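Tutorial sheet, problem 5. The two components below are modelled jointly, 228 residues in total.
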Amino acid sequence: DGGITQSPKYLFRKEGQNVTLSCEQNLNHDAMYWYRQDPGQGLRLIYYSQIVNDFQKGDIAEGYSVSREKKESFPLTVTSAQKNPTAFYLCASSPGYKLSGANVLTFGAGSRLTVL
Amino acid sequence: DQQVKQNSPSLSVQEGRISILNCDYTNSMFDYFLWYKKYPAEGPTFLISISSIKDKNEDGRFTVFLNKSAKHLSLHIVPSQPGDSAVYFCAASETSYDKVIFGPGTSLSVIP
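Model answer (structure tokens):
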């Protein structure tokens, strides 16, 4: 079954620690995305990558870092510089460049990060 | 500044009736619009999309209407079912492969 796997599902972190959230896809998609969900604020884009070894900042990139060394993988590191890291994090992928049609994202099940 | 707005945080509808979820946008460069449905602690799932060259797209019980001059779109669900109770997100992008911007969501409750 093709899909997106996010791990861990739940993660607890002490203040001052960096954590890395994993995102793996076997859909052969070129583009991958990280969103953050907070109550009442919907999904906000953190980083996205349209091709291996390239990525762009989204609307709320401060305090986060990513890498895209492989097509299948797009890990997100939440650094100690992120002031309010407690949130639900969603990874998504899409085919990337298309001649027509909407950019339909496929999402993973999410990772909930809680800072203690 | 939010480029995609959903001004109703919540909506309650009786089972069998029509649900109408609204969305407004500010970026006139948006050419593609999508609706996603999300249950708690799960990832969103794609429902339906529409491009700016159309004003209506229908898929079963779901219909999306686009009014480009008003920068407004709506999702109609007919008839509404209890399983439709979820958070609905409106989203938009400028091209068929560009980043997708989401609205804050509307929580729909369908009452049996």
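Marking note: Chain B has no helices and eleven strands. Full credit if you identified this.
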